[in-house]
Every structure is written in C-alpha cells, then in structure tokens.
C-alpha cells in the first residue's frame, strides 16, 4: 500500500467531526475513528500496518489495519450497514487491544468502516436531527445482500421491501462488496466476525438456507466458546434457522464460508438503544440499533471476539 494514500486518508479526516453529533456523541465518527486508528498505527512500532484495499461508490478509501503475524488469520469487519455504529466501536476497541497486547500466532485484519458512504450519510442525518433509516451504501444497495453465495434478487423480502433489502443488480455490483471479496481472496481468513446491531445474537452460516453446513458442529462449538467468554452471553444459532420466514441471501458470512472455507460469524451487538422512559428513542432509527453508551456492550463483545481467535 502507498503510504501517501493512507496519509491522504488521515489528512482528510482532520477536517471531519471527531464524534457523532446528537445523543450518540459517545460514538466516534468515520473521521474520528480513522484518526484513532492512525494514532494506534503510529504507536504500534510497526506491528499495525494500514491497508487501503479499495474505494467506495463515492470514492472514499476503504481501509483495514493488519496487526500481528502468525498461522491463523482472523478478520474483523463492521459497519456494512450504515447506521449500525456500535460495530465500528468494537473493531476500534479490538485494534487498541491488539496494539497494546498482541495475540501470539494471530494475524488480525480489522475493518471498522466497510461502508463509509452510508456511514457519512447517517452521521449527517444525526447532525441535522433527521431521523432517517440508513442501511445501504451510496447507491442504495444493502451490502449484506450483495455477495454471491446465495444471492437472490427475486427473494420475496427483496421484492416486498426494496428500500430495506435491495441486493443490487447482481453479486458484487457494489465496489465495497467487491473490494472486500478481493481482499479476502488475497488474504483468506481462517476465522471471521462481521459485527452488526442489534439483538444480542451470535450467528453462523448458512444464512440463505436452513440446512446445516458440513461444519455445523465446529460452528456451534466456536459460537459457544465465544458466548462463554462474555460477561452477558449472547444466544447462538445458524442464521438461516433463526426464523422460518427469514433468510439472508447474499450475506458476507455465507460468502466467506462458501467460497473460502472461513469459520465466519455474524454478531448482532447489543440489544439496541430503545429506552422505555425516553420517547425520543422510539422514532429514531439510530437509537434502535445503538445504545446511548456503547462501552458496556463493546467490552462484552470484545471478549467474544478475542475468544474466537484463541479458541482451539
């Protein structure tokens, strides 16, 4: 990667707000998270290496940080869905933890902002007090439905609620999904977590169908190990069996497992930020997905993320 490309990304972030405006000021913005990552890279003494792995639909840099070296490669990715801010906080906390206390034998790849265009749109809405549901990328596509394994443009939820579940015209039509595919093809992870919000679940493939994978026992054992490591354990399930009426066609975890054999998980971080005594949260989509104070949930899920890397 060009050092100049990373430095340009960091320099551009200096002009942005460091925090999300409004009630979610406990969350770092895209700009603030980028600057925090840059500071951790500087203080790592070379253990953390930034990588620009592509460009978004609107031309923003897609970046990851690689930390450590070893036979097991683990991918941590967040914010494929624009307004699910809490996942980004988990990945940034992981980056800080791994810079300060590296895991022997682990090569970790960390992507806190996989959908920067959507993220910026959600942050602008928050700054202007607009209560808008922002899930997609800059072209209105749900990146978590744009991968090839299980892709179905004609799935009933995609046709009935296109504003929510638009999968795109074809697999990898979106540069963010294609760039993540190419990064993982070049550096195949043995294990992975994609962080979403909300619900308090640890999910594994398949997400597009209910029949089990050939590795169902291993998935269940690793999910249980993650839950056991948490102070407030999450429930574990195959995503395709979560509900009879629900399937996630074209998800990132199905791509990682189906194409690369990655033991890939999707964690729904927290149980959201709706507060019975706070009517302002009832009609605010950002509050539905992100608790006002991210720290307790981030610290809880951080334990699961570390457990996946170290589990036998």
Descriptive report:
- The protein is α/β, with parallel strands linked by helices.
- The protein has one domain (3-310): 3-Layer(aba) Sandwich (Aminopeptidase).
- It is built from eleven helices and eight strands.
- It has helices at residues 3-13, 30-43, 85-100, 116-127, 156-160, 162-165, 175-186, 216-229, 252-260, 285-289, 295-310, and strands at residues 48-55, 61-67, 72-78, 106-111, 191-196, 201-204, 235-238, 263-268.
- The protein has an eight-stranded mixed sheet, sandwiched between helices.
- Strand 6, helix 8 and strand 7 (235-238) form a beta-alpha-beta unit.
- Helix 7 runs parallel beside helix 9.
- The longest helix is centred in the N-terminal third of the chain and has 16 residues, at 85-100.
- It is globular, with a radius of gyration of 18 Å.
- The two termini are 33 Å apart.
- 51% of the residues are buried.
């Amino acid at each position: 990667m060009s050092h100049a490309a990373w430095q340009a990304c960091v320099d551009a972030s200096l002009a942005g707000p460091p925090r999300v405006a409004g009630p979610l000021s406990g969350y770092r913005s895209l700009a603030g998270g980028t600057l925090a990552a840059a500071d951790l890279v500087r203080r790592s003494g070379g253990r953390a290496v930034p990588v620009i792995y592509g460009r978004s639909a609107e031309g923003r840099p897609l970046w990851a940080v690689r930390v450590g070296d070893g036979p097991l490669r683990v991918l941590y990715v967040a914010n494929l869905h624009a307004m699910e801010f809490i996942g980004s906080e988990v990945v940034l906390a992981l980056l800080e933890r791994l810079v300060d206390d590296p895991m022997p034998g682990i090569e970790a790849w960390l992507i806190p902002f996989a959908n920067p265009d959507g993220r910026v749109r959600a942050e602008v809405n928050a700054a202007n007090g607009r209560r808008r549901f922002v899930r997609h990328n800059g072209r209105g596509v749900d990146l978590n439905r744009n991968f090839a394994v299980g892709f179905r443009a004609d799935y009933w939820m995609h046709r009935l609620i296109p504003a929510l579940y638009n999968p795109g015209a074809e697999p990898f039509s979106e540069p963010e999904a294609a760039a993540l595919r190419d990064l993982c093809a070049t550096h195949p992870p043995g294990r992975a977590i994609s962080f979403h919000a909300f619900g308090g679940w640890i999910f594994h493939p398949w997400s597009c169908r209910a029949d089990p994978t050939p590795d169902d026992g291993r998935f269940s054992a690793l999910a249980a190990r993650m839950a056991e490591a948490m102070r407030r354990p999450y429930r574990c399930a195959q995503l395709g069996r979560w509900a009879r009426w629900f399937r996630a066609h074209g998800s990132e975890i199905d791509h990682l497992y189906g194409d690369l054999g990655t033991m890939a998980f999707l964690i729904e971080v927290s149980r959201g930020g709706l507060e019975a005594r706070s009517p302002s949260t009832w009609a605010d989509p950002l509050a539905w997905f992100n608790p006002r104070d991210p720290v307790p949930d981030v610290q809880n899920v951080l334990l699961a993320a570390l457990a996946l890397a170290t589990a036998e």
